[in-house]
Design brief:
The protein is α+β, with helices and mostly antiparallel strands and 486 residues long. The chain is built from 14 helices and 5 strands.
Length: 486
């Protein structure tokens, strides 16, 4: 068996690269811009890792073939390029893990920068070391791969495994319980891949024994490439099953669009009925009462009748306002930002708390979901009310960020009160949280409530915006404009 693997090393490497390329290609084909799940929006980074890893593996097939045709300098350049490609692949795997574990954008950007700096540091540090140690290009590449496996591959695979395991809860909340086992299995495979990452190619800084690829092969008779390729194949199969998320989400979006159109038709019918039926009946009743007031000689009766007529006129004006609200166009990003900013300012005036409201990217936002303004206002109102009831004296930061494919609303307080609600806690607070989650679901988004760094509570809402879906001007916003009372 050992002889078989040695003689067919090229075929094994080609198959390993093909497995990773297939994984990346499968994910790329199913790529979507608008998604409400962290897992599906993060899969593109897994595809990037798989594509680049395939190139690195195929480099071990390509470079030996070129040794008969290219000079030593050209071969050294190819070895340097292959090492850089390998480091890039591991950096992409780290990005996949960072996006799965639910970090804040700032922390995620900082850790992304750290991972890139680690990769560059490995390339630069080993290049400097090779000058004093006399390493050739092959030895330098071996040192680069060993260090990058320890510092990038292993942490990236561990983060990805933890993140996939955590995503099971989000899948369940989205009604995708059938996909949960595949996420758990993929987490297990990535955990095994992390363990395999501790085995590095034989070279000047490898630990020897089972810790390097040659020692592993001597002990088990199984090349490390076969182990990695098998893990990649299983991960590819599981990723294809996870890609069913996109089909489920597409079905949910179509159902939401059908519901929105049905609501729009019902509102149009209701608007016509109010205008042509109810208002005309009230107006006729008012004219009748006016004629009675004119004919009567009793001044007190005349006064009372005209008071009733005034009340009917006020009711008519109210119904006309309601009809105009039914005909309002969909909310714009600028209008939503202005409404939420006004709500935050009123809350600050009423409670005396320091509330800072920031908004970014309104001009770049994709189409807003139906009823977005109403639901976002109520989610923000409930989140601010919770800070008033539970957080004590505190500062509150409200951040609204628009992007072509997503809207993010974050409410962060540094209060000293209780953190996020837990089972058996305040019933009223749980009711408010359920309402917030229901509104997030109606927007096709996800709501997360957790302890903020340094204490307090952080509420995060992410709503996908699909710029590929045309705006439908026939779908008005909800007329029930809920306002905050001082």
């Amino acid at each position: 068996m050992r002889e078989f693997f040695v003689q067919n090393e090229t075929i094994i490497l080609f198959a390993q690269g093909l497995v990773f390329f297939s994984l990346g290609f499968a994910v790329w084909l199913q790529r979507r811009r608008a998604t409400r799940l962290t897992l599906s929006s993060s899969l593109i980074w897994l595809a990037a890792f798989a594509f680049v890893e395939a190139l690195a593996v195929w480099g071990h097939v390509f470079v030996p073939i070129q040794e008969d045709y290219l000079g030593p300098r050209a071969i050294e350049g190819l070895l340097v390029l292959r090492a850089m490609i390998q480091v890039a692949a591991f950096v992409f795997l780290v990005q996949f893990g960072l996006r799965l574990i639910g970090l804040t954008p700032l922390v995620r950007r900082c850790l992304t920068a750290v991972s890139v700096l680690v990769g560059l540091g490995i390339l630069g540090g080993t290049a400097l070391a090779s000058g004093s140690t006399g390493w050739g290009a092959a030895e330098w590449e071996s040192a680069v791969v060993a260090l990058s496996r320890y510092t990038l591959l292993v942490p990236g695979a561990v983060l990805s495994a933890i993140g996939l395991w955590r995503q099971r809860a989000e899948l369940a909340d989205a009604g995708m319980t059938v996909i949960k086992p595949y996420a758990a299995a993929a987490a297990a495979v990535l955990g095994a891949y992390a363990v395999a990452g501790l085995i590095v190619p034989a070279g000047p800084i490898t630990p020897g024994g089972i810790g390097d690829s040659e020692g592993w092969f001597d002990l088990t008779g199984l090349p490390l490439e076969v182990v990695s390729g098998t893990a990649g194949l299983v991960l590819c199969v599981l990723a294809v099953k996870l890609l069913e998320i996109f089909d489920v989400e597409a079905k949910q979006q179509l159902e939401a669009l059908d519901r929105a159109r049905a609501i729009a038709e019902e509102r149009a019918r209701f608007r016509r009925d109010l205008h042509d039926g109810t208002i005309q009946s009230i107006y006729a009743a008012g004219l009748h009462l006016e004629s009675i007031a004119i004919r009567t000689d009793d001044s007190s009766v005349r006064a009372e009748v005209r008071e009733v007529v005034a009340d009917l006129n006020a009711a008519t004006d109210g119904i006309r306002d309601y009809i105009r609200a039914l005909a309002e166009p969909p909310a714009t990003p600028e209008g939503i930002a202005a409404g939420l900013g006004d709500l935050a300012r009123r809350f600050s005036d009423e409670t005396g708390r320091d509330v800072r409201f920031t908004v970014e990217g309104a001009a770049a936002a994709g189409p807003m979901p139906a009823e977005a303004g109403q639901h976002l206002s109520q989610i923000l109102r409930e989140a601010l009310s919770n800070t008033a009831r539970h957080a004590g004296a505190c500062r509150v930061r409200v951040s609204l960020v628009f992007a072509p494919d997503e809207l993010d609303l974050m409410v962060d307080d540094d209060g000293c009160g209780p953190g996020p609600p837990t089972e058996g806690g305040d019933t009223g607070r749980h009711e408010g949280l359920r309402n917030m989650r229901e509104r997030a679901r109606r927007l096709g988004g996800r709501l997360d409530v957790r302890e903020a760094p340094g204490g307090g509570t952080r509420v995060t809402l992410a709503v996908p915006l699909d710029s590929d879906v045309p705006e439908d001007d026939s779908i008005p916003s909800d007329p029930e404009r809920e306002v905050s009372h001082r």
